[in-house]
Amino acid sequence: MLPVRCFPSWAVFFIILAVFSACEKKQIQRTDFVLGTVCSIRFFKNVPVELFDSVFASLYELDDMLSANKAGNELDAVNKNAGLAPVAVRYELIEVLSRALYFASISRDAEGRAAFDPTIGALVKLWGIGGENQRVPAPDEIGAALALCNWRDVEINQADGTVFLKQKGMRLDLGAIAKGFAADKAAELIRSFGIERAIIDLGGNIAAIGTKPDGGAYRIGIQDPSRERGTYVGFVEVRNKTLVTSGTYERFFEEGGVRYHHILSSETGFPVQNGLLSVTIVGDSSMDADALSTTVFALGWEKGNALLTGIPGTEAIFIFDDGSVRTTSGVTLHQ
Ligand code: ADP
Ligand code: MG
Q: Does the C-beta of 262 come closer than 6 Å to ligand 1?
């Protein structure tokens, strides 16, 4: 037997501990519940845990700022001061709201009613879809809530950094755009660390940064809206793109054989019924893709498709309730 004892046993213990903790300080993937959904960030090599910490810290911060259901945040203050007074808010909130109002303006009809309307909060609250008090409201309640949805009654004062809702009872809801904004911010942060490839998945709102390590395209599955989560109708191949889906399967309840889902019509006050089960947008800005997935879903196939032809670099996959699938010309759904 060789009596090899280069180090005393306590030193060996500390060396093992040091190696172990060095390993622990790196991670390849992290998943957490934030922004009302399961969010995961995945890299293709181990990265310092601090990177995950800062990306998730940013997601938590944006969740606090952009959620319409957090008492005490700036959005809540804007809603509580509707019809009363302008409220000073952070620049990012104005940035997201301004973009939301842009999508309202491009989705408006002849009467000025917008398919995508960030002032739909009173109606969203009334239905409570996905929450404990979800229910089909009475017609007069829907009428009253609809009267409080009007994107033209939002006043942004850029110089003062304030937002004012003109009618008492009006409520902003940024649920259709917030995750996209958060995905863009996460991507920005990741790139600022010099990292070239990652997959950000904020509850199906995906930002695919760079390419696969071999330079190939990522294959991203498109959920079959009629089957359980993780069953795909096909996949698309993308490099450096974002994919965002809006669908009837995300949040809904069923009553009397009818599915009431969470994308509401600013015209009828009911969940949008137009034969679509989902719309996936493939684009460059996740905030825009998020807003557009909801916008195009709410507009329906014809108007939605027409809107997209005017937005270069943006593609879409439409899935209908008869099982058919249509895509815009610049995207291929592989089987
Ligand atoms: P997800 O939240 O599943 O990503 P969406 O991006 O389509 O889905 O956003 C749906 C959410 O947007 C709803 O839960 C609600 O908060 C809000 N919303 C519902 N209808 C509209 C609408 N017509 N315009 C703008 N926002 C809406
Ligand atoms: Mg959306």
A: yes
Question: Do residues 68 and 129 make contact, with C-beta atoms less than 8 angstroms apart?
Answer: no
> Cα–chain-centroid distance for residue 67?
11
Mutate to test the pocket of ligand 1, among 142, 206, 262, 290 (most ligand atoms within 8 A of CB): 262
Domain boundaries, the chain: 14-63+197-327, 66-165
Q: What is the CATH T-level fold of the domain 14-63+197-327, as seen in this structure?
A: T-fold (3.10.520)
Length of the chain: 335
Torsion from C-alpha of 244, 247, 250, 254, nearest 10 degrees = 170
pLDDT grade for 203, boundaries at 50, 70 and 90: very high
User: Could you tell me the distance, in angstroms and rounded to a whole number, from the CA of residue 151 to the centre of ligand 1?
Assistant: 15
Sorting pLDDT into bands at 50, 70 and 90, what band is 249? confident
Half-sphere CA count of 186, side-chain side, radius 13 A: 36
What is the pLDDT, as a whole number, of residue 25? Answer: 81
CATH class, domain 66-165, is mainly alpha
Please check the confidence at residue 142 and state whether its pLDDT lies above 90: yes
- The pLDDT value recorded for residue 11 is 59
